């Protein structure tokens, strides 16, 4: 009888395990359908410093390292092995907008700026314009109210204009700063 009890226990465990696995697969399918309707939040990632074409144009051969740093900011990469160059790398990844990446290398001879080379940098206005262009469809609400919608709100009273007219006028002359 002891052997039969073990055999029954094994069969019961096998059946319960099989039923649990079957339940997990059916839950997984419904979860996948629900997850396709939900879009997760993706964090905006900005690395490095943005360098505009105006900043690159402001660089002049012979400038000191400090002057270059004042124009472009602190470089993202400086190397002990390549002390004669600074790397300015900028990347931005935003949800709904194509990722951007730009690189500029600034070369020095001693303490003096020699040249800069890298990607073509956009102007500040061009860069700002690219920030607001999502690649997906976004529904923009209508921002105009109809006459019937405006009629729901009370008309502003003229009393507000009267109180503004009665407000005390600021003092036009000031006392001297030092006593005589």
UniProtKB/TrEMBL annotation:
Chief localization: membrane
UniProt keyword Signal, yes or no: yes
InterPro entries in alphabetical order: BamE (IPR026592), BamE-like (IPR037873), BamE_dom (IPR007450)
Membrane-topology descriptor: Lipid-anchor
Compartment(s) of residence: Cell outer membrane
Assembly with partners or alone: Part of the Bam complex.
Stated family: Belongs to the BamE family.
UniProt name for this protein: Outer membrane protein assembly factor BamE
């Amino acid at each position: 009888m002891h052997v039969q009890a073990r055999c029954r226990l094994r069969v019961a465990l096998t059946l319960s395990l099989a039923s649990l696995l079957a339940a997990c697969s059916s839950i997984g399918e419904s979860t996948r359908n629900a997850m396709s309707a939900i879009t997760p939040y993706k964090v905006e990632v900005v690395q490095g410093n943005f360098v505009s074409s105006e900043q690159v144009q402001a660089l002049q051969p012979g400038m000191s390292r400090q002057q270059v740093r004042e124009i472009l900011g602190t470089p993202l990469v400086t190397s002990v092995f390549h002390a004669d160059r600074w790397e300015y790398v900028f990347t931005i990844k935003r949800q709904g907008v194509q990722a951007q990446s730009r690189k500029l290398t600034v070369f020095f001879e001693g303490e003096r700026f020699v040249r800069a080379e890298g990607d073509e940098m956009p102007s500040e206005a061009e860069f700002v314009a690219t920030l607001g262009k999502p690649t997906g469809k976004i529904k923009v609400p209508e921002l105009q109210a109809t006459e019937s919608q405006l009629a729901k709100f009370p008309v502003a009273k003229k009393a507000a204009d009267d109180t503004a007219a009665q407000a005390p006028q600021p003092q036009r002359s000031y006392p001297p700063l030092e006593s005589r």
